[in-house]
Amino acid sequence: MSRRALLLFAAMCVIWGIPYLFIRIAVTELPPVELVFARTAGGALILIPIALARGELRGLAARWAPLLAFTALEIGIPWLMVSTAEQRISSSLAGLLVAAVPLVGVVVAPLFGNRDRMDAANLTGLLVGMVGVAAIVGFDFHASDALALVQMALVVAGYAIAPAILNRYLKDLPSVGVIAAALGLAAIAYLPATVLQWPHTIPSLSVIASVVVLTLVCTVLGFLLFFALIGEIGPVRATVFTYINPAVAALLGVVALHERFTVGMAAGFVLVLVGSTLATRRRRAAAPSKTSPAVAFDDHHVAARPDA
To answer: Which residues have a Cβ under 8 Å from the Cβ of 165 and sit 6 or more positions away?
Structure first.
């Protein structure tokens, strides 16, 4: 791996690991709807001109149905759900729970054309991953906010299903164009609710700074650097950093916000990683499938899952 690739990889480990911290800070004063609108509108205002200059918005209108589905499941619903959930649970817990996305991806993959049969290792991985998720929550579900856990379950489901939709119906379209259009559509959808919930007071500097970081760094810069990383080391190796993001989220939550981090959360995270590795492992004799359980793309058209 070249020095440039290493720098890009390290940057992505951090950039898509920090959103949970800044979401937690932002929702202390901003309604989740306004936070989502700020992120999507800001990202769209920057990425749409780039996509237009590259001619990457052509052909999107003909795929309006899968584009809307992708927008809802990748951005519209998950970003609102995670922002709402973090009003009641820690950023560390939210980040760690998102690590379960590959497990759900394996389950939903057959619905989108993946014909690979699950073997004993895959099934074992699912079971290990489920135990890991329970350990992260703490086995005592009454100790956590039930509604927040349901919201995080919707986040995980959305992040698992959206890339499958993208890979099945939109993978031949340029990546920046798809993401820019999705951000724009999400911003339009959240505009009416944002106007109705417009704050009567100016948020604090820490909240404003959090929104700026989420928009410019985690969304715009994150996508652009990720596409650059794909060009350096290819799509498969480029996604390895997504296993590090939850650890970054947990570490930042503990250090910056003094959140509680238990042995069970640490052990659960390890179990989820092991389970995800086993669940997504393909048999050597199996032919490559048309869709990937969690993320699928080629070197020029990428279907990426942005963390929070």
So the answer is: 66, 69, 70, 73, 112
Cα–Cα–Cα angle for 189, 37, 213, nearest 5°? 150
Dig out the tokens for 298 from the structure.
């080629």
Nearest residue to 118 via CA among 292, 294, 279, 288: 279
pTM for the predicted model, two decimal places: 0.84
Q: What is the spatial distance between Cα 282 and Cα 265, in angstroms, rounded to a whole number?
A: 28
Of residues 223 and 109, the one with the higher pLDDT is: 223
Are 208 and 29 in contact by the 8 Å Cβ rule? The answer is no
- Residue 138's nearest CA partner among 258, 249, 260 is 260
CA–CA separation, 135 and 33 (whole Å): 30
To the nearest whole number, what is the mean pLDDT of the chain? 85
Using CA atoms, how far apart are residues 84 and 89, in angstroms rounded to an integer?
9
Beta strands in 6-87 (DSSP E): none
- What 8-state DSSP symbol labels residue 16? T
- pLDDT tens digits, one per residue of 48-87: 999 999 999 999 999 999 999 999 999 999 999 999 999 9
Residue 92 has pLDDT above 80, yes or no: yes
Relative orientation angle of helices 245-257 and 3-15, to the nearest 10 degrees = 60
Q: What's the CA gap between 23 and 156, in Å, rounded?
A: 17
pLDDT in tens, 155-176: 999 998 988 898 889 989 998 9
Q: Considering just the CA atoms, what is the radius of gyration of the chain in Å?
A: 19
Residues 182 and 70 sit within 8 Å (Cβ to Cβ): yes
Q: Are 224 and 304 in contact (CB under 8 A)?
A: no
Instruction: Please tell me the chain's helix, strand, coil percentages from 3-state DSSP, rounded to the nearest 5.
Output: 75, 0, 25
Q: What is the 3-state secondary structure (H, E, C) of 269-306?
A: HHHHHHHHHHHCCCCCCCCCCCCCCCCCCCCCCCCCCC
